Amino acid sequence: MLRPPYQSYDRLHVYHLDKADIPAFADPDLIGIWIEDDTAVLFFHRAKDPLVADLCSRHRCNVVYQADLDYCDWEAGQFISSFTVGGITVSPVWEKGPADIRLDPSVIFGSGFHPTTRVCLETVINYLRSPEAGIKTMLDLGTGTGLLSIAAARFGAEKITAVDNNPLACEVARANCRLNQVAERIDIREMDLRKDQPQTSGCNLVVANLYRGLLEQLFQTPSFWEADLYILSGFLQSMEADLLAELPAGQLRFLDRKRSDKWCIWVLGNRKVIG
Ligand SMILES: C[S@@+](CC[C@H](N)C(=O)[O-])C[C@H]1O[C@@H](n2cnc3c(N)ncnc32)[C@H](O)[C@@H]1O
Asked: Is 149 in the pocket of ligand 1 (CB under 6 A)?
C-alpha cells in the first residue's frame, strides 16, 4: 500500500520467500507482504537485498525468486489511470481530478483494468441501481482491492461481507473502504474459501470473480446456493460447459450471460426466491 512519502508506484522490487510466517516488520519502502500458501512475496519500492538476506538468515528461509519490475508490467502492461463504468469514475489515488471512487490498487487484483473486474463492476452497479432487485446485502467472494464492494456500498447496499484469503488484499481493501468512507458497511474478512464459506442464506447478492477450480468447489456446495442473485466470473468461454454441469439442476435461472474479451460473466437468479 502507499504510505508517505510514496504517492504512486514506479518500480516493484519483489522477493518470493519459501516461508509464509515471516513476523511483521516495519520498513519505509515496504509496499506489503503477499502470503500464498506456504510462501511469502515481499514487495518494496526499492531494492532491499541486505534486509531480505537478514530476514532469511533469522527466519531460516530462502529467496526462491527475485525481480525488479515496472509497476505497469505487474499490471499486465497497463498504465493504471481513471476509467468510467456505468456512469461512475474510478481513479487511482495518485490522480487528483474528480472521482466517484478512489482506489489504491497496490499490487492486488481489482484495479479495474481486467475485463472481469469491469464487467462485474458494471453488472453490480446495474443491479444495485434497480429498485426491483432490492439489493441490501451482498457477499463479495475474493474481494481483491474491494472495488466491487465499495461500488455496491455507494449504490445503497447496507451490509456487505467481503472475503479474501490474501492478508494483503484484506489490508488494501480495508484501506480503500476507509478512503471512500464506506468502511462501516463493509466487513472484510480473511478467509480461505477452499476451507470455509460465509453463509449465503439471507443474502441478496453474491459476487464471485474467482477462478474455475474454486468456482467448481463452491458450485458443488449446496449451501452456496441460498442467496437471491449471483454474479459469477473469472472463467473462460472454454470452461463454461464444465461449470454449467456443476450447477444444481432446476434451481437457477440465467438472467444474463455476457462475454468480455474471452472471459465470461454469468448472472443467475435463484428460483427458490425469484421464481
Ligand atoms: C480475480 S481476483 C478478483 C478481485 C476483485 N473481486 C475483482 O473483481 O477485481 C480473485 C480474488 O480472489 C482471491 N482468492 C483466490 N483464492 C481464494 C480463496 N481460496 N479464498 C478466498 N479468496 C481467494 C484472490 O486473492 C483475489 O483477490
From this structure: no
